[in-house]
Amino acid sequence: MYSINANFLKLQKNYLFADIAHRVNAFKEAHPEANIIRLGIGDVTRPLAPAVIEALHKAVDEQASAETFRGYGPEHGYEFLRQAIADNDFAPRGIDIDIDEIFINDGAKSDTGNFGDILGKDCTVCVTDPIYPVYIDSNVMGGRAGDFDNGAWSRVTYCPCNAENDFVPAIPDHPTDLIYLCYPNNPTGTTLSKAELQKWVEYALRHNSLILYDAAYEAYITRPDVPHSIYEIEGAKRCAVEFHSFSKTAGFTGLRCGYTVVPRELEVDAENGERVQLNQLWNRRQCTKFNGTPYIVQRAAEAVYSPEGKRQVRETIDYYMTNARIMREALAEAGLKTFGGVDAPYIWLQTPGIGSWEFFDRLLNEIHVVSTPGVGFGPSGEGYIRLTAFGRREDCEEAMKRLKSL
Ligand SMILES: *Cc1c(COP(=O)(O)O)cnc(C)c1O
User: Fold this and answer.
1) In this structure, are strands 178-182 and 210-214 parallel, antiparallel, or unpaired?
2) 103 in ligand 1 pocket by Cβ < 6 Å?
3) Distance between CA atoms of 162 and 167, rounded to whole angstroms?
4) I need a labelling partner for 80 at 20 to 30 A (CA). Which of 87, 177, 212, 395 fits?
């Protein structure tokens, strides 16, 4: 008789989005005439940039003739894209990343989840709280999270981020092995300064820990002191991998493309005493389990770095960030306290002294606006809700008008 990976049975059911859908549907049934505005969605809404569409068409046409047809590509990704990434995302910031340290993938969710394949079962885990659920759930599947007691996993260290500490997580007072950092942060929309990030790098180097740095929202950074990459910090190449995505940067949530940076300097002592490069292990893992991102999608991603592509992608990001500004200002006028929304498309709203779900219900029932309850992202999210700036301008403006009337 076969057995299953019993760790999957330990996973806690994530009711968050199902619960939201349930409450919204019930409200709709009772009030079919209500014009509901959804500020809860984590997906983009603007179309792909014209330069990206043009590159896609061209790449599709290439597939139509034997001379230009492309079949299996390199598992690492095509050199044209890896070179464009090194030249545009890293070199201008003074970061020297070799193209062999870049692995193209089908999105950051895959690699943040899959990276555990090459890491030991005994590693302990550290996360900031609230967080993107993939980091914890993938470690539950990998057997690293321990047991779920009292709303927390026994082998996971949670670093609370809230208004009291201005969303700057305290460094753990004990060693942990795998540290997940996401900046700019989903869900809080907050960032870490270089000085704060430096403390995490020093901690990781001191304890031989690995930082898994999720930079999915890097393109939304506006303030100069906010690091775009962990490799802006001295020593980070010896302790960190970094995940990027074209999803939020350029609207690739449906097209699917991202990349992972695994520096060659990232080495660890294996049990047999060998010194091992994570870059080699990850390459071996990808060559075995992944056959590459579609050629046409990689050409589309390359176009994000063309002069027109850059300009067009920037316009869309500016559109979302103008939504964020309109929302921040309106919420402040309404006397509500918000965080984020300056270097990220998320606004983290402190509820006026009531629970996340209670405030969610008030917004839905009284002004017909859908938000995301913060507690769904972890215990420290209680007392907050997340609003996204990915919607249409008219909807943001209308929602804010209604909010002021609340
Ligand atoms: C949206 C998002 C990603 C990107 O995921 P893709 O798989 O690239 O679409 C990664 N990390 C976080 C925290 C996100 O919110």
Assistant:
1) parallel
2) no
3) 5
4) 212
